[in-house]
Amino acid sequence: MAENYPLVEQREYRRPEKRVGWLNKRSVRDEDELPLIAAHQVRVFRVGEDYVEDPGHLRPDDPLVTGASSVTVVDRRVEVPAVVETRIPSAEAGDFTVRTTFYCTVTDACAVVRDGVTDIEALLLGHLREVPGLTEDGSDLPIVDSDAVRERIDARLTAYHEMRPATLSGLRVRHGLVEVLTPAELAEDIAKLQEERRQRERDRVRQEWEQETALKRSLLETELELKREELRSTSALHRERNRQDEALEAEFGRQKLEKLLSRFRHESGADDQRHELTQQSERDRFNREQLREDVQLIGSDPILADLQAWRQGDITADELSQRLHADEERRAGLTDRRRRAALEDELTRRGFDRDEARWRVEQDDRRKALERQVELEEAAALQREESRRWNLEHEDGVRARDEVRQDAQQRERDRQEQRREELAAWTTLTTKAFDRGLFDGQLTDPGTHINRVRDISRDQDRQTPDHGPGREVPGASTRSIPQGETTFDADDADLDLGGTDSEANLGH
User: Which of these, 36, 67, 37, 33, lies nearest to 50 by C-alpha position?
Assistant: First the structure.
């Protein structure tokens, strides 16, 4: 897109100083004050608070043109492409570059000028960034899945544009092509553009060099031809100079004779002229003295001049009276015209001052409105960012609490399973001890012995969970123990069944 779309040119006007007409003078502007327009362009004049569109029919002396404070040339082409680029994060370290093409058409040139739509790319970029969920479309995909990201973004922009099209003053915007470039593709695209720019620069330098070479060649050929012409002209000049020298000598003799004759005539004529001038000077000096006395008496007053003419008989008394009345009317009319001109100038100046003050107030209001809009957009963007960050932190906290709860439940299940296994092992060992007759009359404390056997059995279960006949018992003698035989150490007599409660439980 061109840098000056849709506003091609803007000019501000001063009051027109040029006036034409003999009886009814009217203001008119110069031809060069009206900007030239192409077939697809129009002019927009600002006249007071109104904006008037002109396809090129108004003339410099038109009241709308002379009363306008500014003029703007607006481009009315249809479907002008505008390319907007932005970046969205991906699941990897790089970012996707989204390149979107919008097609713009000016529908109301006056609205475009009134709202000052100059940077259309920035407005479209703001509209693109307002699309909800656009930045999350590629956060779960790697860089290589640019086609999937493009389909997502294309579908999202199409749906969003149908529900909420871009609202630009005086413009109709249509959503078009969507491209998603990976960092490598973007770098390749940039490198291609740089290579094309370098190629254009090389072509330009080569053309300049060829033009310079052709110019040097033509200059050398021209210089050679000039030297040849100079040689021919030099020889002809020598011949002409010799002929002129001969003619000059003859002419010099003739002029010398004429000069002597002319000097004699001049000297005699000068004496006669000097005498005549002296007489004329005396007459002029007398006339000047008389005129000086008349000027001192009359001055610049036309009434005195008329009186002097009346006294000398040049005019009659009636003519003198008419001239006096005409002079009084002329002075009164001149005074009235001066007063009306001063009043008109004052009214015009006040009108322009009011227009200028109103224009300044409108400019301040528009600037404040734009600043408020920018502040609201920044606050909304900040609020959206804070909301997204809070949601992410909330999800991380919920996920961490779920993991801690699951870990605690798993540890609890492991403890319960271990307790069940210990209880089963203790029950099995106690049953085996009763079956083998370990609690006959020779044991004074069967509970201690059972506790000890339970600890030994737990260690055996962890190391060798299953042993056949003739197994070895860790911590005991290394001899083989036949099946059904029980061994006792010297400490078996000191086994404790856990007190009275243990004996009572075993008895039951």
Answer: 67
pLDDT at position 293: 73
3 state SS of 50: strand
Q: Which residues lie closer than 8 Å to 360 by C-beta, 6 or more apart?
A: none
Residue 446 lies in domain: 436-473+486-507
CA 486 to mean position of chain CA atoms: 96
DSSP three-state, residue 179: strand
Q: So what's the pLDDT on residue 187?
A: 64
- Number of compact structural domains in the chain: 3
Q: Are strands 26-27 and 7-12 parallel, antiparallel or unpaired?
A: unpaired
The percentage of residues in the chain with a pLDDT greater than 70, rounded to a whole number, is: 75
Q: pLDDT digits over 154-189, tens only? A: 777 777 777 777 778 889 888 877 777 666 666 666
The answer to whether residue 447 scores a pLDDT higher than 80 is no
The residue-averaged pLDDT of 468-492 equals 40
Is residue 222 domain-resident?
Answer: no
Strands 95-106 and 50-54, how do they pair?
unpaired
The answer on 499 and 369 residing in a single domain is: no
Cα 148 from Cα 144, distance rounded (Å):
9
Residues 6+ apart with CB under 8 A from 76: 40, 41, 42, 106, 109
Amino acid identity at 70: S
Q: How far apart are CA 58 and CA 151, in angstroms?
A: 50
The answer on 163 and 76 residing in a single domain is yes
Ordered DSSP codes for 62-121: SHHHHT-SEEEEEE--SSEEEEEEEEEE-SSSSEEEEEEEEEEEES-HHHHHHHT---HH
Strand, helix or coil for residue 476? coil
Q: Which residues contact 111 (CB under 8 A, 6 or more apart)?
A: 169, 170
Confidence of residue 493 (pLDDT cuts 50, 70, 90): very low
- Name the H helices within 299-316: 302-312
Report the half-sphere exposure of 237 (CA within 13 A, side-chain side). 6
User: Are 58 and 131 in a shared domain?
Assistant: yes
298 vs 96, higher pLDDT: 96
Among the residue ranges 123-127, 153-157, 301-305, 430-434, the one predicted with the least confidence is 301-305
Encode burial over 168-178: b for 16+ CB neighbours within 10 A, e otherwise. bebbebebeeb
Residue 142 lies in a domain: yes
Tell me the per-residue pLDDT of 2-26, one tens digit each, with 9 for 90 and over: 567 899 999 998 888 766 656 667 7
- Say whether 45 sits in a helix, a strand or coil: strand
* Beta carbons of 321 and 315 less than 8 angstroms apart: no
Contact 18, 32 (CB under 8 A): no
